[in-house]
Amino acid sequence: MNRKKDKGFESPRPYKLTHQVVCINNINFQRKSVIGFVELTIFPTVVNLNRIKLNSKQCRIYRVRVNDLEAPFIYNDPTLEVCHHESKQRNLNYFSSAYTAAVSAVDPDAGNGELSIKVPSELWKQGDEMKVLKVYIEFSLDQPKGGLHFVVPDVEGSMAERGAHAFSFGYQNSTRFWFPCVDSYSELCTWKLEFTVDASMVAVSCGDLIETVYTHDMRKKTYHYMLPIPTAAPNISLAVGPFEILVDPYMHEVTHFCLPQLLPLLKHSMSFLHEIFEFYEEILTCRYPYACFKTVFVDEAYVQVSSYASMSIFSTNLLHSSMIIDQTPMTRRCLAYALAQQFFGCFISRMSWSDEWVLKGISGYIYGLYLKKTFGVNEYRHWIKEELDRIVDYELKMGGVLLHPSFTGGKEKENPTPHLHFSIKHPHTLSWEYYKMFQCKAHLVMRLIENRISMEFMLQVFNKLLSLASTASSQKYQSHMWSQMLLSTSGFLKSISNVSGKDIGPLIKQWVDQSGVVKFFGSFAFNRKRNVLELEIRQDYTSSGTQKYVGPIKVTVQELDGSFNHTLQIEENSLKHDIPCHSKSRRNKKKKIPLMNGEEVDMDLSAMDADSPLLWIRIDPDMSILRKVEFEQADFMWQYQLRYERDVVAQEESILALEKFSTAASRLALTDILEQDQCFYKVRMQACFCLAKIANAMMSTWTGPPAMKSLFTRMFCCKSCPNIVKTNNFINFQSYFLQKTMPVAMALLRDVHNLCPKEVLNFILDLIKYNDNRKNKFSDNYYRAELIDALTNSLTPAISINNEVRTVDSLHPDVRLILEEITRFLNMEKLLPSYRNTITVSCLRAIRMLQKNGHIPSDPSLFKSYAEYGHFVDVRVAALEAVVDYTRVDRSAEEFQWLLDMVQNDPSHYVRHKILSMLAKNPPFTKAAESSLCNEALVDQLWKLMNSGTSHDWRLRCDAVNLYHTLFGQTRPSCLPLPELGLVLNLKEKKAVLNPTIKPELGSGGPELPPAMVFTSNLEEEHVVMESPLSGMALAPQGLKRKAETPLGSPPEPGQVLQEEPVVKAGIKSRFPTQEEEDIDMDTVHDSQAFIYHHLNMLDRPSTPGKSKINSREPPTMEQTIMSMPATPVPLFSKESTLSSKHGGEHHHHHHHHHHHEHKKKKKKHKHKHKHKHKHDSKDKDKEKERDSHTFSNSPASGRSMRSPSLTD
Backbone dihedral region of 956: left (phi > 0), alpha (psi from -120 to 50 degrees) or beta? Predict the structure, then answer.
């Protein structure tokens, strides 16, 4: 096995996984539960392998067998609750380090895991012979909160008729949420996947569908998938639902799946997928790596696109009909992106997290090449500029993005990114925004590498990587070869130097190994005597997110004699560069002027400086540095650049610059661009907004009709009646986008009184009034939505006369017209909804603007009703955005609370994520300003949310951390009182130490005591004992470690940590069933009533056999116990968990005392109702107490470890 070391990959695990079976034999949509088993085939790589660590979150493990021998296991997931010990610590630095430690403790890339299995000693000797071990694990999932999402519409009919479906999801490696596995991108193995579902459902998973077998009664069928290509567990997925199936007409190995009734949309949306396949296969000169490809479109998707081995899961909202214009390019981009990740990301996986940038970079780069081919060079360069602006803005605002964090060296580098409030050592600690920026920077850096070594070599490198991987993947029985399918930074760089012979070390050092972008300031002077251009380029490399650039930079100078490129060297201290110029003879001869692309044009040269031959200058025109350039040149130079430079990036830069020069010449240049059909439509759209700004600045000198009106009339209105718009015809997309944008920009015009000119407003209202789409083959929903946006843009703050109360009667007549239009549109939408409800979305924004400008009373209730679960997701997000804004403007604690409740309880993961990110972008208050909203209860609530409330969704937890940072900063929130004396904080070591004065109390019942002391006392004493370790003090560490040690053959215990989590949140309704179902016998169906009795009667049983005497007075005692504690389940569970293991086989003994159960059931229910009033204070306390109580009852003190095999070997 030493060959591995030569290959460059050393596994952190003492074994090699070669094959895994996942068998899910029951998926229940009513209960949202899954039952199944996995079997992992493992080759030990050390002698006497005695521990196997695997990943598993929220799965309930029933039994583990290794080679048919029962094996004991420990389950411990520190990420469930990040900070245990302290209750008073509230600073983010502390949380961040604790969270990083928790994630690392179960990180499979470090050889760790939540589940630790002890290999039975009989098998140890096999280590010598390197025999294979088969690890068999039975598990179930009940109402999973992450990893697997169930969508069950609340309508009539069977599950299939209701369109109920389930699919796996997650951010980075999240497969552990739905079955036990080695959840690492670097542990590859072959797969056998089996899913048994109702006959009316379809199960789609990775690999090839071998067969579908019906059960005898034809009610269920089992789908058998085989994936012979070694694949990492995070790239395995599942989707189950009543899907309609479409085999791609052009490529029969591609199959598409969508929800019922969407087949026509699916056919249209997928009609060009084969072109994307052909494109990638051609440029990579390599076949698509898998035998088949499946696309599944699901509702309530986590992200728009998630790629897995041989299949991708998309949001169903990407589907569209042939009438929709705006969605089409977006959907194509999503599909192209998903397919790029099939090659780099799924087929070729990464060695470690610090190599992620290579995969994201390559897939983003080849996706860019697809954009260039399909949408053209203009679209591609526009996209590159957009991405470059995004990353530059982010890094300058937030500090640098580091692509290749190296955590080597004796003591890990303290912190490569001290400017961030989260750790970048692990994908699960990153903020979502940062991760998006990381992907953006990765593909831009790949483009820089292409600039350096040429595209031809770049594609050869990709081809070499793919062919090595496919050779390795076909080696069925030589699993040590599989590491060729893992890509690392060093392997990638080696491949580049082998193929191209070029050294790109400096480039990597600059952009990959360090963070930051470059900030240039440029200005120039023309020296007439020497006929030289004196260019000065300065840099700012001191502010946050910047770095110093030394090296070549390209400058393009357009002169009368043509366009000339110069390469300057930027050195440590040289600022001035002299560039020789050419003659100025052309001016006199009236010759045409040659441009960059070889075109020759006539120019009106009257505007330019008579002495200099310079028309315009561009710094780094190819964007071959990640930079921001602020260049100063005269207004006429920007105008020439806008008119005659043929590169869209140059045109966009000049439009931005012209905003500062509000002159008639600028107006003319912009109007010319608007009228030019050859000009790229996005440049023309940008020109509209720039023109509106210039018109507002020239208000006093502006002549003629309002900006753009005559142009719009000429292009889109009737010749005979200029105020009536022609019937819509969107066959020319360029003019369609212009027609949509012009009114929106015109609405930004203002007159001398800073109001929107009456003429413009009437013009927009006429466009709405005369809009006629009957003869159009395309839908006008986006156009109508933009007309509403135009109305919104025309609004200006209301002038209130001596604080009169606003009523509909006292509305300004113009505003009244606007309000009537919006109301009419909203009502129409209810009857005939538009595609993706675009019009509702615009109306909601408009109403919020009316409120903000003081025209109608501010009131969130409309938005709250539109934000409820059940509306289309875009509508919900727009409504929530309005509520978030209202919360900030009105400082409303009630709405803030409502939003936070939604974050905790909403079924849609995407919506939860959006609420938190919108709150972080538009926060109700910040750490800088005092606010009435900032109080201790809020701090506690947000702390609980990020500490334990979001452990099922990495992205959501990082969102919560982000919001906490926005509101309170990195240190302790200012609104909190000073920490109590009980805790002495030692910040240097980041530990909370108990004050010595309190220590003795622990002695009364700490985990060190013999079992007799804890459990033979009567109930009241037991209650006290439970309290003492729970009163906010640290438990002894060993109590924390041994969370769920299951003795052989014992039934699963309800006291396990994970099962309690769903229970606490579910509230009254589901409390009973969830716990009952935990003891379900897999084969027989039980009567639920019997379950409740049996369950309660387990609670009723005395905790030591000698205590039945007390049974007669149990209920009252119980009641006192319950009443005196905030968390009902604590005393019950602690006892129950010890019981279920002690009386392993005695389940059905005590079937008496029925009246007690009735009594107790009522009590419990009553208690819950009461608890819901104080939901927020006690809910989380519940959780903590519950969790701690298990810890306590499962600790060695509970007397259970005597029966389980010893784990100290």
Answer: alpha
Report the C-alpha gap between 1071 and 276 in whole angstroms.
50
Interval 670-676 mean pLDDT: 95
Cβ(968)–Cβ(974) under 8 Å?
A: yes
| Distance from C-alpha of 461 to C-alpha of 317, rounded to nearest angstrom | 36
Name the residue among 64, 56, 58, 53 with its Cα closest to residue 138.
64
Residue 101: per-residue pLDDT: 94
Asked if pLDDT for residue 1035 goes beyond 70, the answer is no
d(CA 188, CA 16): 9
Could you give the angle at the alpha carbon of 1194 between the alpha carbons of 1188 and 1199, nearest 5°?
135
pLDDT digits (tens, 9 = 90+) for 1047-1062: 344 344 433 333 333 3
The DSSP output letter for 948 is I
428 and 172 Cβ atoms separated by less than 8 Å: yes
Reported as a single tens digit per residue, the pLDDT across 880-905 is 999 999 999 999 999 999 999 999 99
The answer to whether residues 711 and 674 touch, using CB atoms and an 8 Å cutoff, is yes
Model confidence at 419, in pLDDT bands (50, 70, 90)? confident
Tell the burial category of 808 from Cβ atoms under 10 Å away from its Cβ (0-12, 13-18, 19+): exposed
Pairing of strands 133-142, 33-44: antiparallel
Q: What are the phi and psi torsion angles at 565 (to 5°)?
A: -100, 135
Q: How far is 158 from 21, CA to CA, in rounded Å?
A: 30
In this structure, the number of other CB atoms found within 10 A of the CB of residue 1019 comes to 20
For 547, residues 6+ apart whose C-beta sits below 8 A from its C-beta are 400, 510, 514, 515, 516, 517, 518, 541
Cα–Cα distance for residue pair 685/738, rounded to 1 Å: 6
- Helix (H), strand (E) at residue 831: helix 813-831
**Which of 42-79 are b and which e, b meaning 16 or more Cβ less than 10 Å from the residue's Cβ?**
bbbbeeebbebbbbbbbbbbebbbbbeeebbbbbbbbb
What count of Cα atoms within 13 Å lies in the side-chain half-sphere of residue 200? 13
Tokens of 709: 């009106």
- Bridge partners, 181 (sequence order): 55
Q: Report which DSSP code applies to 426.
A: S
Kindly report the pTM of this predicted structure: 0.82
Dist. CA 98–CA 668, nearest whole Å: 60
CA neighbor of 642 nearest in space, from 611, 686, 610, 600: 686
Q: Are 303 and 237 in contact (CB under 8 A)?
A: no
pLDDT value, residue 802: 60
pLDDT tens-digit map of 1160-1202: 444 444 444 444 444 444 444 444 444 444 444 443 333 333 3
Judge whether residue 788 has pLDDT over 70.
Answer: yes
- pLDDT at 131 (0 to 100): 81
Q: Where are the alpha helices (DSSP H) in 344-405?
A: 356-375, 377-398
Residues found in the chain: 1209
Q: Over 50: is that where the pLDDT of 1103 sits?
A: no
Confidence of residue 128 (pLDDT cuts 50, 70, 90): low
Phi-psi region of 369 (alpha: psi -120 to 50; beta: other; left: phi over 0): alpha
Query: Distances in Å between the alpha carbon of 32 and those of 148, 873, 1002?
Result: 10, 22, 41
Alpha helices (H) in 474-553, listed in sequence order? 489-500, 505-511
Secondary structure of residue 587 in the 3-state scheme: helix
What is d(CA 237, CA 203) in angstroms, rounded to the nearest whole number?
10
**pLDDT value, residue 412:** 44
**Quick one: how far is CA 147 from the chain centroid?**
13
Q: Which of 233-242, 268-277, 1010-1019, 1099-1108 has the lowest mean pLDDT?
A: 1010-1019
Q: Is 147 left (phi over 0), alpha (psi -120 to 50) or beta?
A: left
Q: What are 118's two structure tokens?
A: 């002890």
Give me Rg for the CA atoms of the chain: 33
- pLDDT at position 593 over 70: yes
